[in-house]
Amino acid sequence: PLRHAGRTALVTGGSRGIGRAVSRRLAREGALVAVHYGHDAEAAERTVKEIEADGGRAFPVHAELGVPGDADTLWTAFDRALAAQDAAPGLDILVNNAGITVPRTIANVTEDDYDRAFAVNTKAPFFIVQRGLGRLRDGGRIVNISSVATRVAFPPIIAYTMTKAALDYLTLALAQELGPRGITVNSVAPGYTETEINPTLAIPEIRQRYASASVFGRLGAPADIADVVSFVASDEARWVTGQWIDTSGGVHLG
Ligand code: NDP
Fold first, then answer.
1. How big is the CA angle at 174 (ends 173 and 177), to the nearest 5 degrees?
2. Domain encompassing residue 114
3. Which atom of ligand 1 is nearest to the CA of 146?
4. Residues involved in catalysis
5. CATH number of the domain bearing residue 79
6. Which of 11, 119, 132, 187 is placed for a possible disulfide with 146 were both Cys, Cβ 3.0 to 4.6 Å?
């Protein structure tokens, strides 16, 4: 039987990048996947089509995050779309993946940059969880996508790093709070991963530098992260909670 058969998952930012790979992987293993997006409806439709072409089930959910009421907008859209699928209400797996970066040193971070990054990367997951707890079934899974940047110092992305450090503590505290319900909560922390979040990846010297930071000498692929998320979301990972799991390909080990 498929690992996630009979389960419903919501992947925020499931339309592109790491979230797309997570959506595809969970769907390939039997989950009905809500592919959330904020702006690019075509990308979400494309990911849903890819999943269906693989024999899986998925549907898009739109909600811009980082704006007032975002969590309620998301859950209202989710509930409605799920009902349209003739699926039971509620979910088993929540992946807080949507995020934005702030590629600036402290000298150059504006108040707007700072507020926006915290609104999307930290506040949105917090209230998505808060408003989602009544929907998440006992025995469920919450996976927060963090970053290797909370393990070592990265001054060029200091504000971004702080948003993810706060998310790591959400993971720890929630794991304790939700244990009695059999819900695990973990952070999965990618390193340099090939997506559209970092446009400098198009520059050959920078690609080379990031690739050689990994002990495996290459950039991460979104699927490298998705495989770990799928494990953490599975029954096999039932005894793992409150953890920060490095998925960086061994960058900056010492
Ligand atoms: P991408 O930029 O490739 O994709 C981001 C996804 O999030 C898209 O689906 C996008 O949808 C959605 N999103 C972004 N902003 C919003 C918003 N305001 N409202 C709703 N949805 C939004 O990013 P990655 O796949 O690279 O990143 C995914 C996660 O992984 C992020 O949390 C990131 O911080 C983390 N990460 C990434 C690393 C990397 O090297 N790639 C390294 C470490 C961590 P839309 O465009 O439609 O809004």
1. 95
2. 8-193+222-247
3. 44
4. 160
5. 3.40.50.720
6. 187
State the ipTM, two decimals.
0.99
Taking only the tens place, the pLDDT of each residue in 116-152 is: 999 999 999 999 999 999 999 999 999 999 999 999 9
- How far apart CA 127 and CA 12 sit, in angstroms, is 13
- Is 22 touching ligand 1 by the criterion CB < 6 Å? no
pTM > 0.90: yes
Asked if the structure places residue 62 within a domain, the reply is yes
Ligand 1, closest atom to CA 70? Answer: 19
- How many A from CA of 3 to the centre of ligand 1? 26
- Whether residue 100 has its Cβ less than 6 Å from ligand 1: yes
Q: Is the CB of 186 under 6 A from ligand 1?
A: no
Looking at the structure of the chain, the number of domains it has is 1
